Amino acid sequence: MNLLEKEALIAEQAVKLETASPEEILKFAVETFPNITFACSFGAEDVVLVDMLHKVSPKTDVFYLDTDYHFKETYETRDRMEQRYGIRFVQVKPVLTPEEQAAQHGAELWKSDPNACCNIRKVEPLTRILSQYEAWITGIRRDQAPTRANAKKIEYDTKFGLVKFNPIAHWTSDDVWDYIRSNDIIYNPLHDRNFPSIGCEQCTRQVAPGEDPRAGRWSGSDKTECGLHK
Fold this sequence. Notes:
Elements: H1 3-17, H2 22-32, E1 36-39, H3 44-56, E2 61-65, H4 72-85, E3 90-92, H5 98-105, H6 109-112, H7 114-130, E4 135-137, E5 154-157, E6 162-165, H8 173-182
Parallel strand pairs: 1-2, 1-4, 2-3, 4-6
Antiparallel strand pairs: 5-6
Helix pairs in contact: 2-3, 3-8
């Protein structure tokens, strides 16, 4: 399928998929683009999609960006999910180890230049893994941040050059947690300790009552996204 054909298909399906259930969107995604992958961060939205995808297409690749800086609870959530679903998440690591990064760019790069740190530990590895696929699935929701408010259920990702599916873009946080509780889904226990959005340990803090759910990410800076989503 060439680019023009993909764009035509996306424009047509974006309207149809807007009212489709997440499961219907996943089914369409894996059938239309067999060479597809799911990017999992082990956050609440993504554990929901792991469960849905396992029911729809259990052999579809699921990868995670191992920044080397995740909370231990995140790695433990990964291990528990692998055991429950009988799958192996594809580990994608940065080219530089933390020690090499510190030697080349200085210690605690996440403080001096968080964008550079995210580029090294997230964006470059993501670009590398996505180059192997024609489509990818994410767990972004429109109400997570203003930068995500216009996300469509299916769109062409111009940054990475492939088709992007956002099956739960229209869901609220309540929808996510209703699914987790109703289906007894494994989730990161940090969510129970006021961490609604979980990234690297150095750049994530607890959120106080009344704060924006993403206020705990890159707190104290004007950074709001790691660069994985436009």
